[in-house]
Amino acid sequence: MQEDNDRRDDSTPRNDSTTRTSRNARISAAVTRHRRRHPRGARALAVGAVALVGLGLAGAATIALDRDDAPEPAAVALDARARAEAADRADRSARESTAPTSPTAVPTATSASPTPTVAPTKKAAATPKVTVKPKAVAKKTTSPKPKPKPSWVIPMAGAEITSCYGQRGGALHAGIDFALPAGTPIHAAAAGTVVKAGDVGDGYGTSVFIDHGNGYLTHYAHQSSLKVSEGDRVGVGQVIGYEGSTGDSTGPHLHFEVHQGQMWNQIDPAPFLRARGIDVAC
User: Fold this and answer.
1) pLDDT tens-digit profile of 206-239?
2) Which of 235, 182, 238, 236 is nearest to 206 (CA)?
3) Phi, psi at residue 259, to the nearest 5°?
4) Percent of the chain at pLDDT above 70?
5) What is the pLDDT of residue 143?
6) Higher pLDDT, 198 or 55
7) What gap in Å lies between CA 247 and CA 175, rounded to an integer?
8) What pLDDT is recorded for position 121?
9) CATH fold for the domain made of 160-274
10) What are the pLDDT digits (tens) for 135-193?
11) Strand ranges, E, within the chain
12) What number of CA atoms fall less than 13 Å from residue 213's CA on the CB side?
């Protein structure tokens, strides 16, 4: 058929405008077929069609000027189709690369990273404190101070009082009588000096006088025996003799007197002793 067309074209004079119209129709048909195949690349096809029309017009002018018997521009049409397909592929790939993410594709939520567990640091073993005890200072053992001896004591402790100071039988009983079994020790009521010791025949039997140097003297009568002599210095509570019944006596006892200022100036021994911390039941 192509050969018939060629022969017909050689025998029949050609009209240039008719030829261009026929070519344009063929190009339009090709564009229409391409659009039907690729509806999504309409924009690219429109651009390609404009390019093809320009190429076709230019090719037609060239063919009309150079050669009147040039073959139909099938190759041009094929080239335009390939370019349109390439443009469509490029346009599609660009759309796919910039297409938004499908709404059905939900990004997987990344679970929050768990807080790292910090293992507790083992504390270094505490160095035990070494308590240095101070050396025990040996306490000086101080023996308790002995209680100071009283200045005055009772001459015969624990004895029964059988007679107090005062009138008795029409006469003055000038002292206090202490009774215990014979031989009971007799103690000096206070410190002093022995000024008389023995029996002088005055009814007091064996007796002792002690001067205490403070204006007072004490008298211890009816003793069975003596432990001191005249001129001896005695201390408070010192044993000076033993209970007896010598002189004018009806039984073993101690007759005790207090003389104030001078010998034979007797006073009541009970208040005197109480004033010095010694209580007697008289």
Assistant:
1) 999 999 999 999 999 999 999 999 999 999 999 9
2) 182
3) -110, 130
4) 53
5) 72
6) 198
7) 15
8) 59
9) Glucose Permease (Domain IIA) (2.70.70)
10) 666 666 677 777 777 899 999 999 999 999 999 989 999 999 999 999 999 999 999 99
11) 160-163, 166-168, 171-173, 176-179, 185-187, 192-199, 206-211, 216-226, 233-234, 239-243, 254-260, 266-267
12) 9
What residue type is assigned to position 170 of the chain? G
Tell me the C-alpha distance between 166 and 174, whole Å: 6
Rounded CA separation 85/124 (Å): 78
Q: Which residues contact 169 (CB under 8 A, 6 or more apart)?
A: none
Tokens of 57: 């017009």
**196 φ, ψ to 5°?**
-155, 135
Q: Where are the domains of the chain?
A: 2-98, 160-274
Quote the pLDDT of residue 162: 96
d(C-alpha 268, C-alpha 280), whole Å: 11
DSSP collapsed to 3 states, 76-94: HHHHHHHHHHHHHHHHHHH
Strand partners, 243: 223
Q: Cα separation of 112 and 15, whole Å? A: 80
Q: Higher confidence at residue 12 or residue 97?
A: 97
Beta bridge partners of 258: 218, 267
The residue length of the chain stands at: 282
- In degrees and rounded to multiples of 5, residue 111 shows phi and psi of -65, 140
Looking up tokens 């200045």, which residue turns up?
Answer: 151
